[in-house]
Amino acid sequence: MSGTKLSRSWFYELRARARAEDPAAAVQPRSRSWPQGHPLAVGLEIEELAVRLRKELRDQGCDYGPVSVRFRMDRLGVTPPAASTLARIFSRRGMVVPQPQKRPRSAVRRFVFALVHECWQLDAFDWVLAADRACVIFQLVDDHSRFMIASLAAWGETVEAAILVVDRGIAAFQVPCLLLTDNGSALNQTRIGRRSRLVDHLTGLGCRPITGRPGHPQTQGKDERVHQTVQRWLRARPRATSLAELQAQLDQFDRYYNHDRGHQALGLRTPAEVMAAGPVAVPPVPAPPAPAPARPARSKQPRVAANGSVRVDGVRIQLGREHAKTTVTTISPVRP
Predict the structure, then answer these.
(1) In the chain, how many domains are there?
(2) CA separation (Å) from 129 to 88, 136, 156, 169, 278?
(3) Counting CB atoms within 10 angstroms of each CB, which of 83, 149, 256, 335 has the fewest?
């Protein structure tokens, strides 16, 4: 075999083929496919189930990527293929629109608070009811668990609505240690030297209001991401005709989001599962009330009477005859 580039083992395999078949067929390229199909290939039944679930999730306004489909299959008791396998199936079926501009998840650096209720995020976005009536939707999210603490449909982004949604969350759970918002006029304008009723309300409860940097919405990234999720979910349903109807839709979404939707950032656990696992932050203690300011005082220099008494604010005080006809200094609070 020294005069050729064939290995000894390959030569003997070709000779065995030539004896078993004809010499010309022995040197023809052979199929590389597995005789009985690839052992890791997904069965047609599983593939059809994955395709059907993807369509159902899309029609319901839910996330319908490979990871979401895999989560739904697992919840149905079906051993799912890998997410990469599902991605190839959906691509082969023409169900995927390429998004080359989309950043990979590895390009995003995430910060997560260590405790449940350590920090909540509050934000609002515009929405339109039937007959083109404008309104807003507030969403209050726990940073650690991504749990939707409360949602509120309101006619405008007002401080009254912001306080209402926060109070609903506090009534259902506890006072958070921190509340992160943007710098909106209804939320927190401390960075520009202004106070708001929401900030004063939270401070009185022991919660510390904080904001992201102006022009840096990534700080509220968890809220921004869930805005996209609820908007897609709402668009898959008939448009609400009133705030009450929209609020009912939001309550339904919150139940789905918290208990039925596996979150990729949580290792495909639901927010409710992560919240239940804890640990939970100790509720903050409100600061003691500030002492009442001291009342201003006034002083006078009256002359002591011959009997040794002096009159102060209508009250006669006996000092003794030895002080008669002397001048004394009296100090008394200013009457309101």
Answers:
(1) 3
(2) 39, 10, 13, 25, 37
(3) 335
